[in-house]
Amino acid sequence: MASRHTLNGFVLALGALLAVGCDWPGKPDPGTRQRAAEELTSFVPLYRQHCVGCHGADGQQGPAPPLNDPLFLAIVPDAELERVIRRGRRGTPMPAFGIEAGGELSDAQVTALAQGLKSHWKSDEKLDEPLPSYLPADGDDSTRQPGDRERGATLFAVACAGCHGENGRGGEGSDANNAIHEPAFLALISNQALRRIIITGRSDLGMPSFAGKDGRPDDFSTLTSPQIDDLVALLAHWRDEQGQLANPHTSNVP
Amino acid sequence: MNHLLRELGNWIDVRVGYSETLLPMLRHPIPRAADGPMGWWYVFGSASLTFLLIQILTGIGLSLVYVPAANEAYESLVYLDYEHPFGWFLRALHYYAGSGMVVMLLAHMTQVFLHGAYKYPRELTWMVGVVLLLCTLGMFFSGQILRWDPDAYWGLAVAGSMAGRVPVIGPWVVHALLGSEIIGAAALSRFFALHVFVIPGALLTFLVLHLWLVLRCGISAPPAADRPVDPATYEAEYHEELRQGVPFLGDAMLRDLFFSAAAVIVVVAIAAVVGPKGPTGPPDPTLGGANPRPEWPFLWLFALLALSPPAAETFIMLVFPVVVIGILFLVPVVSNRGHRAPSRRPVAVLAVIVIYTTLGALTYLGVTAPWSPEMRAWTSAAIPTDVVERSSPLELQGSLVFQYKNCRNCHALEGVGGRRGPDLTTVGTRLTRDQLIDQVSNGTPGGGNMPAYGKQMSPAEMTVLADFLVSLRPSGQPPAKVWSSSPTTRP
Amino acid sequence: MDHEIIQPPTEQPHPPRRVFFRWLTSAAGAVAAALVSVPFVGYLFQQRKQSVHWVALGKVAEFPFGETRTVAFDNPLRQPWDGVTAHTGVFVRREGPGEGAVDRFLVFAVNCAHLGCPVSWFPQSGLFMCPCHGGVYYANGQRASGPPPRGLFHCEWRVVDGNLEVQAPHYPTLHDTLDQTT
Predict the structure, then answer these.
(1) In angstroms, rounded to a whole number, what is the distance separating the alpha carbons of residues A249 and B453?
(2) Interface predicted TM-score of the whole assembly (ipTM), two decimals
(3) Does residue B449 share a domain with residue B328?
(4) Are both B303 and B337 inside the same structural domain?
């Protein structure tokens, strides 16, 4: 009888071993097969491979404007977000990622990135200010005037000079290197990118938004959309003073 | 029953005669010392043989499912990995037992070399052994091609490009290798034939010759410092030694059997835990992101090619392997007499140390491949946040240009990014603004490692990039001054 | 059982008939070997005659001036059983309109001139980079830096009825390039 038990035990052990064998760590997981295909159009790996370099690991604290910014995500139109990813933004170092524009992302991947930005980082909180529009006025809006650089200069003294210095030539003390009235700086940033930065600020680097009061004088009031146009007009004028730095890759400032 | 079996054995023996031929061979005496603790040095050859048997077994198994056609091979590998019962395990075992075979062959060769066992009268045994090593490496390379993924495709491309450098007949050699104008089905079939018929046939033939030579010349005794080899007297001395020898068949085999069993267990465990290698994806040459790497036995050659000056490259590809094989081949011709003990052959010991250190260092470099740009670094490696936080608007633009112009693919910041060029985390302390602009514009003089960016950048881009690079300094460190790093530009 | 050792017959001058037979046997053997090996060696190494194939890459207008595009196609040099390995990529760059408004294209094989690895195009820096050993080329295909001994391989191209066509490329190597000039 003892030998029968031993035999049974042996068979059981062998069966168990085979059953365990199906879960050996080396056995390829069928799940990875599907995941590999899904990863091609899922936001996180796409963002990690194609965006982190300039926009920062968490969508913040990169040299390029932060994407993980609820204010930005609240005002940017979906179509514009997709268009910029696909076609790039001329006049800035934002390259075109769409395959038809010489990049390597398919339509589905561009869409996944654009939608992923909003679904990952868009805040549910209501932003109570009346928000300026992301894009400047369209032609059919007859009430809107194009920006005026004279008004812009006045505004700059109030809203910007505290950090960027008089005429944007750099502030005092720790703000000494905050100059933006620099031909090379302006040559590599488009009017739309300027507008966006004026609206959203750079919360990750301490620059206040269009409504932020930090570091601004007491008589500062929230910037309106036309006022932002004026500021952009001023900066664009500064840029135009320096035509010789225009560059072949980024010259077509829209 | 026993009686019947013995009858059957006798019946066969009368006709085949194994008791007169085979049995004495297996019972051949080996030197007594080789049955002692020194016997553990002798186990590597038989372990290689054991792995070869596993390779034959798993290879036949895989051939039952694998389809050696360019349009189906990848799918059949995926089927093996995910669906066929134990298909993944056979693939893994075939890979790791093959790797084990290379390791054991190298250990075996090293032991034979260090113990001077290749000296008279075993010179030919060594030479045939070198052929077996070449066959095994040929199996490794052709086997990698059968794993019909991008590494296989680009491995063929590299092999074709190397062959294409042969003067005059280069194009003909490429065509003989690929079997077609393009890399595809014909090449796969050629390497399948090599892997399954040609090389195994050669390997088994030379293996029989090798074993015959081992039997005929006898197993060498462990080296003794006071007994150099003299071809005139060696035979008599060896014969005398064998008088006190022990038969191989029996306890003397135990060590080999034990070691082989242990090696197999280790390899099976690795296969079960690590699993099969690849295939990494379909072998579509138009898919992006290809980053071909050779199999580990060839990483050292990959590294050597990457590090050699361009002028020496064709030589290293085409002549150097022939020279190395020639040297290995001629080892027993150069020294077939004299001392065998490592203690009396410091040059031999030194040679082994130098060769393995070199191979090890080159293989390590081959794994890390610091000469390869990281093709995605410019969009996937973030600018370090401490750099971003301290940057001025101009420097921020400069860091964008740095990424945008793909500098990051070759230059790391704080260790992240390509390593083909120097890490630029503190470049501002080493080079002045003018030197940086000169370096970026003109690249490495004479078309070295860095391309000239002069025509690829606008003045604004160059300005902000220089601002950014100059700012790359630990806080408190002053920027580089002209006189400190470039005496030639001193006024 | 013991085998008898057959002693060779004592040396005698061979009769002429035997000498002739030995000679005949060698000759017949040589002829037989040649008859087998010539076709076999030809089977292994001779190149099949291929006619020149042209592949349409698209309308000329689809390629913007001064930009580089990757175009993938199925290589007509393929066999039906080549599978995805017959997919072939080329880089197409349309140069600015030349004199007399003649279209000028640069069509490059993706293979690095160093060891055949696939180079990638980076429009931002205007460079091709190779992932293997870091060979770099300028937009016009010239070698910029790294180990390649020459520039990228140029494919033959032509424009037929407003369509850009490229001559189906074989695998290019140093001594077997894709055009006659380089």
Answers:
(1) 14
(2) 0.89
(3) no
(4) yes
Cβ–Cβ gap C124/A102 under 8 Å: no
Chain C residues with beta carbon closer than 8 angstroms to that of B371: 133-134
Chains with 3 or more CB pairs closer than 8 angstroms to C?
A, B
Give me the pLDDT at residue A251, please: 36
**Residues of chain B positioned with their CB less than 8 A from the CB of A48:** 380
DSSP sequence for A103-149:
SSB-HHHHHHHHHHHHHHH---S---SPPPPSSPPPTT-TTPPPP-H
Cβ pairs A/C, distance under 8 A: 10
Q: Please, where in chain A does CATH 1.10.760.10 lie? A: 38-121, 149-245
Determine whether the interchain pair B165/C88 forms a contact, defined as Cβ–Cβ distance below 8 Å. no
Taking CB atoms and an 8 Å cutoff, what residues of chain C touch B70? 81-83, 85
Q: How close does chain B come to A55, measured CA to CA in Å? A: 8
| pLDDT tens digits, one per residue of A168-217 | 998 887 778 889 999 999 999 999 999 999 999 998 998 998 988 888 88
Residue A166: partners with Cβ closer than 8 Å, 6 or more residues away: A157
Say if A102 is an interface residue toward chain C (CB within 8 Å).
yes
Give me the CATH number covering residue B437: 1.10.760.10
* Chain C closest-CA separation from residue A100 CA (Å): 8
Q: Is B152 on the interface with C (CB under 8 A)?
A: no
Residues of chain C positioned with their CB less than 8 A from the CB of B283 = 83-85
Nearest CA in chain C to B402: C125
Residues with Cβ < 8 Å from B67, sequence gap 6 or more? B73, B75, B76
A149-245: CATH topology: Cytochrome Bc1 Complex; Chain D, domain 2 (1.10.760)
Q: Give the nearest partner residue to C174 out of B69, B164, B444, using CB atoms.
A: B164
Does B246 reach chain A within 8 Å, measured CB to CB? no
Q: Are residues B319 and B448 in the same domain?
A: no
Q: Which residue has the tokens 């090593």?
A: B133
- pLDDT value of residue C10: 64
In a structure prediction context, what are the per-residue pLDDT tens digits for chain B, which is 491 residues long?
A: 789 999 999 999 999 988 888 888 888 888 888 888 888 999 999 999 999 999 999 999 999 999 999 999 999 999 999 999 999 999 999 999 999 999 999 999 999 999 999 999 999 999 999 999 999 999 999 999 999 999 999 999 999 999 999 999 999 999 999 999 999 999 999 999 999 999 999 999 999 999 999 998 989 999 988 888 999 999 999 998 888 888 888 888 899 999 999 999 999 999 999 999 989 889 999 887 677 889 999 999 889 888 888 888 888 888 999 999 999 999 999 988 899 999 999 999 999 999 999 999 999 999 988 888 999 999 999 999 999 999 999 999 999 999 999 999 999 999 999 999 999 999 999 999 999 999 999 988 766 789 999 888 999 999 999 999 999 998 888 888 865 444 444 43
Residues in chain C: 182
Nearest by CB to residue C69, choosing from A93, A95, A102, is: A102
CB C115 to CB B162 under 8 A? yes
Q: For residue B18, is it within any domain?
A: no
Task: Name the phi and psi angles at B446, rounded to 5.
Answer: 80, 20
Domain end marker among B345, B368, B391: B368
In angstroms, the CA C107 to CA B183 distance is: 20
Q: How far apart are CA B164 and CA B220, in angstroms?
A: 44
Look up residue B192 and give its amino acid. Answer: F
| CATH number assigned to the domain with residue range A38-121, chosen from the 4 options 3.40.50.620, 3.40.1390.20, 1.10.760.10, 3.90.180.10 | 1.10.760.10
Decide if B116 contacts B123 (C-beta within 8 A): no
Q: Is B3 inside a domain boundary?
A: no
Domain that holds residue B407: 377-489
How far apart CA B293 and CA B299 sit, in angstroms, is: 8
Cβ–Cβ below 8 Å for C68 and A249: no
Of C125, C136, C173, the CB nearest to B174: C173
Q: Does any CB of chain B come closer than 8 Å to the CB of residue C75?
A: yes
* CA B143/CA B189 separation, integer angstroms: 12
Give the B window 325-344 contacts with C, CB below 8 Å. Answer: none
